[in-house]
Give the backbone structure.
Amino acid sequence: MQRNLFLKTCFFLGVAFLYIPILVLITFSFNASDKVNVWAGFSLRWYRSLLDDPQILEAAQNSFVIAIVSATLATVLAMIASVVIVRFGPFRGRTLFTGMMSAPLIMPEVITGISLLLLFVAMQQLIGWPANRGFTTVVLAHATFCTAFAAVVLQARLRSLDSSLEEAAADLGSTPLRAFFKVTLPMMGPAMTSAWLLSFTLSLDDLVIASFTTGPNSTTLPMLIFSKVRLGVSPDVNALATLIIVGIGFAVTLSVAAARGPRENQE
Amino acid sequence: MRDTTDKEPLLQIRGISKAFGSVMAVDNIDLDIREGEVFSLLGGSGSGKSTLLRMLAGFETPTSGQILLDGKDLADLPPHKRPVNMMFQSYALFPHMTVEKNVAYGLVEDRIPKSEIRDRVSEILDTVQMSEFAKRKPDQLSGGQRQRVALARSLVKMPRLLLLDEPLGALDKRLRESTQFELQRIQEKIGITFIIVTHDQEEAMSLSDRLAVMNQGRLMQIGSPTDVYENPHSRFVADFLGSCNVLDAEVTGESGSETRLRLLASGAETVLPYALDHPAGDKIQLVLRPEKLIVARREIDPGSSGTILKAEIAEIGYLGHRSILHLQMDDGTLFHAHEVSLNRRNRSPLQAGDKVNVTWDGSDVAVVSA
């Protein structure tokens, strides 16, 4: 009984530690006062001022488009890489390739950001593309590190997929490419949704890499928030952050549901 | 059983080997399969039977040797171009497709006209009695039903050769027996040549026209089920196909069409009603199936073997249709014998502790080299 109480206390302290800051933030986003830390009654004025701010709306749009494009790119690349790693049998350099696939997972973001910036600058000087930094470079950078995360999800699923299904397709007359599109891909659907949503969230969330690789007119939402906070915390950032939390919470829930879906169907 | 001996072999396997690293999974196998025959590859795990099957399907490339189907070399054909289909042990039904779509898959890939696909699919589903489940998904079917769908899917393309990997392995014992006869019925109706891989000797013996026992990548013996069971060439084959008693013996002499032997354990004399190409003094092993032993409490006539051994019943395992007797022989060895339960009320059934006489017919003894 006492042990039970101890466990419960630990649990609540842990959860409180994690979520009280977020609750405070959400609460104060509905604050009527101009001061960030003084409660003066319920109001939606910061949400209204958010909608009236063209800078924020533009940054939000940038972030969403970048997230959608880079998540799609990352999922396709990760799928190809996973098929190579899991299904092509042992080939020269497979261990190296597998390791390099997952290296961005542990690489500090600052280093990823700097190295990509150097690459883009060098490319611009050598081949003239990308002409300037902005939307394209951020998408490429995000696709690069999201691919590593997506590949983890997809590799795990592909490994658990019975390879005799693909053999059966081949046995019944499918070329390897047709077997991939008719059998492997449909069965990978939920995992791909999951990988896409994960990449989407990571891209939407990223500040460091975007700061290194973006240019004028391509400010993302996290960058905007960061620069606003540097000039002193304004309550409309609370409102923005609340919206982002809700959005990401939704995406994560969807992703979990997508990953769990097929397993429940099997039972 | 059909007589298929006069036909040209459909499949010729010539000196085929497969090495995984330094391990020879399949070691220089030669084998002919005749058209219309049901052939079983029987062996334990790691015997190479599945590797051999996968080489026929094209999923493994032989290290050396040739596979000829209708006289044509299959070496350069990838799996999707071989006129061979396979029924997988796990069935490998596509979970995102209905039964109908699963069965039609191979025909769609062959670009057969739609109306013909519909006819052929409904005909084969009829044959395996799965018509009413056509719109179901595989996860809505029982194990036995999935097995039928997998069979239908591999048969619908009318392959020259059907490979079955442990076709009954995933079914429970009761379902297995009925499915066995079902499989035979379908094979006879369609007439496609079957190659079955199995580790279950009863399955192999009841299904096949011929079977091969495999061990460590080699074929130990090929023949009809009766032939392999009654005349095993080696101790391994004898042990693998059912239980057996093995007696060490020494050849003592030969007269005409008889061979005289001395059993090493008891020193008793015994006679085989046929000549052996072993000179006197050679050590050989005799294989006696448990059901061939005659066990009785009373005095019995020795069979043509001329041998009676004394024993005590150590234990009796009652299985209903028969009992397994564990016999402690007076010479110290252990024998197994089967007693069939012929009468419902046996007046004087054998009991543990009974002193008994054991004999057998000389012609029931198989000889393997020691």
